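note to self: the first set is below, dont mix up w the second
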Amino acid sequence: MAITTDINYPEKYLPCPLKDGVGLKPVSPLLRTQKQSGRARQRRAFTSTPTVTDIQWIFDDKQAQIFEAWFRDVLTDGANWFNMPLMTPIGTKFYVCRFTDIYEGPTPEGGIYWRYSANIEMWERPLVPVGWGNYPELLAGSDIIDIAINREWPKA
């Protein structure tokens, strides 16, 4: 079950999070039971689990004011889910996210900027649609397919 929200990250006024050093940490969907024999039994317990990641921004004075006010007023100090553009292996797109706690910062950066960092959770792991794992050849050649479709059938 996916969730949706009408709250959007104010990308018109704030830059997207920095990409350097940002890793995705998916929550395991497995349930593992250790047996007396030393072996373990495991199974998939969930088909949808969140992914957590650390993100950072560098803001000027006005952007820092906008960010902190948006966090307090719109996100109710980070409690609400929101849509934010993030770069992942499947491309940059909007993901439903929320802060796991309050951000860190502002920390002075370069004399005129402010660095903020936070941990967020994404509602779902950023994956290709279910079933595509059965067709690695199509995923591997998806760039060629996209070029061919857009070049050969642009009006389709």
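second set (the one i keep forgetting abt)
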Amino acid sequence: MYTIGQVEEITGVKQHVLRYWEEVIPGFAPKKDFGGRRLYSQKDMETVLRMKHLIYQKKFTIEGARDQIINESEAFEKSADLLGQIRSARRELTEAFFALRKLR
């Protein structure tokens, strides 16, 4: 876990910008400790670096970068769901294969 100061130092993104991004990016909400200090996970760090790349290198607007991250997240969820379906089908086919072998 990283503090907001550590995130600023590592990524070069100012603390006030990080706090603003929390407001505009769905799902980007670092946990807070008992004192109310933000604690950023590795996933949060990846989001910060992705936002920074989209805004500063790719010249996206904040809204455009947010929309891109949302789209990427939805695509990831769909692919994860598809992977789950493939694994389930594979499991069923394997069970059917071994059941047929026992019948011989």
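remember for set 2: The chain has one domain: 2-103.
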